Amino acid sequence: MNDFAGNTCPCFSFRIKALARWTPRVRYNVCMEPHPHIDAHVHILPAWRLAGLMRWIHCAFPAHPVPEDIDRAHIESDLAAGRARLFFNLVYPLRPRETHRLNAFNFKLTQDLPHCAGWGSLHPENTDKAAATHRCIHEYGFLGMKFHPFVQEFSITDPAMHPVYDTLCALRRPLFLHTGFDEFYKMNMPPEQIAELARRWPDMPIILSHMMFPRMRETLDLMDAHPQLIGDLTNVPGSIRWRAGLNGKSFGDMPETQLLRRRLPGFADRLIYGSDHPAGMGGYADIYADFHALNLSRDLAQAILWRNPLALVHKYLPGRWRAASAAGYETDF
Hints:
By secondary structure, this protein is α/β, with parallel strands linked by helices. The chain has a single domain (38-318), classed as Alpha-Beta Barrel (TIM Barrel), CATH 3.20.20. The chain contains 15 helices and eight strands. Strands 4-5-6-7-8 form a five-stranded parallel beta sheet. It is globular, with a radius of gyration of 18 Å.
C-alpha cells in the first residue's frame, strides 16, 4: 500500500505501471464553468502530506498536469480560477498519531476560509473513537466524518468502527466513504457491506464517494433501496473517459455513460460532484469538462454542482455559508 508520504510498497508498483499507460489531457487551470459551483471533494492538506500525495500521483501518472510542487495557495487559486466559490475539504490520517494534527489543520482552514466546509476523520487504530467523533462535530464544527478504507486499511464492517457509526447516527450526521476502484487498490468492499451499514445505522447518511466505480449499477440499486445513501460522482466521468480511450470508443457510446444518463435523474436530490483536486483525473478544466460531457439536463447539473452540496451545509451547519456570503463569496448559482 502507498502511504502517500513518499513510500511505495513493492506490491503497489505493478498497479502504478498499469496506470501509467493513461496520459491525461494536458490542460490545466482553465475555467470551464459558465456558473460558480460547489466543489464537493477537495484535498487541501498540510505541506508534509500534500508533498507525499503529489509524489505518489506523479509516480502513478507521470503526465498528470497538476504540478508536483503544488501548495495550498496554488490549490486555492485553482479553485477560484475554476469558479469553485464554495468547497468541501476532506482529510484522513494514515497513522494514528496524525489524527489530531489533520483535524486541527482542517479546523484552522475552515476558520481562515469561510467558503470552506470541513470534514473530520480519525485513524482506525485510534482509541475512544466516539469522543474523537464528537470533537470533530461539536468542537471543530465539521459536517461529518470522512474515511478511505482502502488507504487506511480497514473494513467498514469492523466492529472497532462501530463507535463512529453509533455517534454519527445519534447525531444524524453523514459518513463520507471512499468506494470503488477495488481492482486498483487490490481490496474489496462488497455492496452488501454498505447495505449493512445503511440498515444498522439508518439515521447516518452515507456519501458513496466515486459511486463504487465501476459498479455504478449496483450503487444506484443500493441508493434505490436505502434513501440515506448519497452518490458522489467525483472521478466517475474521468474514469469513463479513460476507459473509452483504452477501448477506442467515444465517451457517449460507453455503457457507463448511458447508464448514468438514464438513471441519475431518479436521484436528482442525492448526488454531488467534486474535483478531487489536486489528485483528480486530470487538470481542473478536464474534470469539469468530463462532468459536462455526461450531457445531463441543466436542472440536474445545477442540483449536483450547487443545490445538493449547499443543502448539506444548510442542514448540518446552518449559517456556515451565510458567513461566506457576507464575506463577499458568491452563494447563488
